[in-house]
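Quarterly update from the structural biology core.
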Amino acid sequence: MTDDEFLSKMREEDRLHPIISIVLYYSEKPWNGPICLKDMIVKMPEAIDRIFSDYKMNLVQVVKSEQYTFHNEDVKTVFEISREFFHGNIDKVNEKYKRKDLTAELISVIGTITDSAELVRQGKFEEVTNMCTALEKWEKQNIERGIEQGIEQGITKSVLTLLKNGKSVAETAALLDLTEERVRKIQEENQAHVN
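Predicted structure, tokenized:
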């Protein structure tokens, strides 16, 4: 080795392998941030702008992934199903994937991207899942959650109405078959509506 090669730990004929960084953005909202270093820099004089080294970000957005070509079938499936979930096209997913079995790992990845606890749960506990079955369970969970939220909203509205009309916490609890503690909690959380 020459002295320079010894210091740099590289021989003159050595070459580096390229490293490409890719940002995978999996929000249902489109990316609106900078996509290169120049987007983050203040306005530069033209003389500096010409010699400025810009660094581009390789951004892959799940919500806009129809523009990409994926050669790996699993990756294509994850992006396609996740994208359609974000666009609210559950019927389209069900129609295209109802007869296809997906591995638990794929279901879990889709659940993570789309923030679906039910799909993540299915991915952890079921070895191979038919997408139709996974979607049925997902829809059932969402319907159940919606019903629970509706019931809670109804209870809250009833409690607030009774308290606003002069009923005491004890009377309200007795009328709605609730504990006084729960009525007080609803009252505290919604103080502005009671007065």
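The two ends are 85 Å apart (CA to CA).
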